[in-house]
Write a structure and sequence with these properties.
about 40% helix; binds iron/sulfur cluster; Alpha-Beta Plaits; disordered N terminus; globular
Length: about 300
């Protein structure tokens, strides 16, 4: 029998560690989950070299998602300094210490092809649409464990810390607007075209066209998200290292794929003590039977002596 990571985690959450261990030990090996590539993947392309930091996209995002303006840091303006429970999209500023370079950085969910938030969620409250590839959150399945906030390598999902029924806040690519034939809020207002929406393959071609047309303009002539972290549906172009925009260098293997490798090793070694323990139980049982048989014999002997 083979089980998936999700079945294992759900087993732990629902039935407790011993039950999950029993299932794991009984299974051949944790089978790899094959993540289907979305058939009609859509996404965003953000080009930091033409973003002017106007934050029109931040206000448009709040309006499109019907969230109250986040004026907690600045009572007069919609100027959140980071993603938070009211903010799905933020514009940050990177500035070198010596002032030699700077860049704006748009941050929202990357809609990873293999999303770590969904892999880490024990109840599938975060799930990737098999067609569009949009990673959505469902309030009905969420139990508020906050695993998704820990597993996401981009530190995107944010949780409400107030209220009886707290919510996860993250960009869901304005699915509700797409369903009405509209573009995402952020892409519909950007005055420079720094963020655009479209099918992922088309966005990738556009990014490569820009790189080819402007030699030396883009960092490493590379599109972040083409292969990084297994590929993402939000793609980035930049003139400064991607890490300065808050995009870590994760390599081509997705975070869930990496952790699965470690999980395999962990359970391999986790299984060994369990097998030894099972062997020990058998030895103890055998010895107990031997002792019982001896005692029975001794009783019989004692009884015989008493009768003599
Ligand atoms: S960026 Fe984070 S929240 Fe968004 S899909 Fe990837 S893992 Fe999930
Ligand atoms: S796609 Fe929608 S939810 Fe996501 S950042 Fe843009 S406006 Fe906000
Ligand atoms: S609206 Fe466009 S130019 Fe203005 S901050 Fe957002 S991405 Fe940058």
């Amino acid at each position: 029998m083979a089980i998936t990571r999700r079945e294992l985690i759900t087993g732990i959450a629902k039935a407790g560690v011993p039950a999950a261990v029993a299932v794991t030990v009984g299974s051949e090996v944790l089978k790899a989950e094959t993540i289907p590539v979305p058939s009609a993947a859509v996404g965003l392309l953000y080009d930091a070299t033409i973003c002017i930091g106007c934050k029109a996209c931040v206000a448009a995002c709040a309006e499109a998602n019907d969230t109250p303006p986040d004026t907690r840091g600045d009572a007069l303006h919609q100027a959140p300094s980071d993603l938070n429970d009211l903010t799905r999209n933020v514009i940050k500023l990177y500035k070198a210490e010596d002032g030699s370079e700077f860049s704006f950085a748009k941050r929202q969910c990357m809609h990873c092809l293999d999303p770590a938030c969904a892999a880490g969620c024990p109840f599938q409250a975060l799930h990737k649409d098999p067609e569009s590839g949009i990673v959505n959150w469902s309030a009905n399945e969420c139990i508020g464990c906050r695993y998704c906030t820990i597993t996401c390598p981009y530190h995107i999902p944010r949780f409400q810390w107030v209220g009886f029924n707290p919510r996860v806040t993250k960009c869901e690519l304005c699915s509700h607007r797409l369903a009405q034939g509209l573009k995402p809020g952020c892409t519909s207002v950007c005055p420079t075209g720094a963020v655009i929406f479209g099918p992922r393959p088309v966005l990738l071609l556009e990014a490569k066209r820009r790189i080819e047309n402007s030699p030396g303009r883009y960092y490493e002539n590379r599109v972040y998200g083409e292969t990084d972290n297994g590929g993402t549906q939000a793609l980035y172009l930049s003139h400064v290292p991607f890490e300065k925009l808050g995009l870590p260098e994760l390599g081509p293997e997705s975070v869930p794929a990496k952790t699965l490798r470690w999980q395999r090793r962990f359970y391999q070694y986790f299984a060994l003590p369990a097998v030894l323990y099972a062997g020990l139980v058998q030895v103890i049982r055998k010895n107990l039977k031997g002792h019982e048989a001896d005692a029975h014999e001794r009783e019989k002997e004692t009884g015989l002596r008493a009768q003599l």
